[in-house]
Amino acid sequence: MLQISKEYIELISNLFKSFQRLNQKSSNLTHLQNQILEFLFMNHNTLTIKQISEGLNVPKQQMTVLLKRLFDQGYITKSQNKHDKRSFVIELTEKGKTSQQEKWAKIYQNFVNDLSKLDREEQLDLQYAMHKVNYLLKKMED
Amino acid sequence: MLQISKEYIELISNLFKSFQRLNQKSSNLTHLQNQILEFLFMNHNTLTIKQISEGLNVPKQQMTVLLKRLFDQGYITKSQNKHDKRSFVIELTEKGKTSQQEKWAKIYQNFVNDLSKLDREEQLDLQYAMHKVNYLLKKMED
DNA sequence: ATATTTAGTAAATTATCGTTTACTAAATAT
DNA sequence: ATATTTAGTAAACGATAATTTACTAAATAT
Questions:
Q1: Domain ranges of chain A
Q2: Taking every annotated instance into account, which residue ranges of this chain make up the domain HTH marR-type (chains A, B) (predicted)?
Q3: What is the pLDDT of residues A24-59, one digit of tens each?
C-alpha cells in the first residue's frame, strides 16, 4: 500500500470518534432518520429521493416511507423538481438544520477543549496542515 | 468560531463521503451490526459490552441481543473480563476483521483513483500535510 | 456485615427496517 | 407513435431495532 494511502486511512481513523458523534441519534429520531438528515446537511444542496437512496444504499421504496416520516415531523420539505416532473426534491427545514448543527456544536466543543494540549506553534501548524489537506482533497473531487 | 475549528469541521466534512462508504452494510449484516463491527475494528483493543453500548449510544439490553447475533454468526468472540468477573470482553474474529477490511479496500481504491487528479508535487504535499495532521491529532488525544 | 452500584441478561411489546411485487406517470429512445 | 426506462408510490410480510420492566451476581461503599 502506498504511504499516502496509509496516511489517508489513518486520517479517517483519527477522526472516527468525531464521526461517531455525528451518527448518534438525537432525541426522537432513529439512527437511519438521523443519517438521512446528516446526508442532506452534508450535501447542502437539495437532493432528489433517488440521490438520497443511492447515497445511503437504501432502496427507494423504503426511502419514500422514511422521508414521509421526516416530513410529518417537520424536518424536511418536499417539492416538485422543476427539471423533471416525475421527481421531487428534498430540503432540510430550519428544524432539520438545527438538529444537525447541535451535533456539530458538540464536536466543536470537544475539539476546542483538546486543543489546549498543543502549544501555540503546534496549533498553527495543525491549522495550516488541515487547510492544505482540505484544499487538496477538494481538488481531487473535481 | 476559531479558524482552526473551521478547518477541522471542514476536514470531517471532506472525509464524509469515504466514511459513508464504511457505513454501508455488507451482505448479510444490518446497519447496526455493521456499526458494531466497525466500532470494534476502529478501537482495536478488546471492549466490554458497556463500552460498546455507550460508544454507539445503544442501550446495553439491546447490545446483549445484538452481540449474541454477531456471535452466532461468528463475527465476534466473548470471554470473561479478567479484571471484573461481572463483565465480558468482546473481540473480532478473523471473519469479523475481514468483513471490515473489505470496506477499507474500497475506500483505498477510490482514493488511489482520485489521486491522479493531483500532480506529483501536490501528492507529496498532501502526504506530508496528512502526516502532520495525524501526528498532531494523536498528540491531542493524550 | 449490609446496602448500593454496576455489568450484564431475559422477555415482552411496539416501532422501524428491509425486501419483494406491483403500480402510475413522466422522460427518453427507436 | 410506440416501446422502454426512470422516479417515485403503495402495500404486505418477515426481520431487526428500540424500549420497558425485572432479574442475577459481582463490585464497591458505609
A1: 2-141
A2: 1-142
A3: 766 688 989 999 999 999 988 799 999 999 999 899
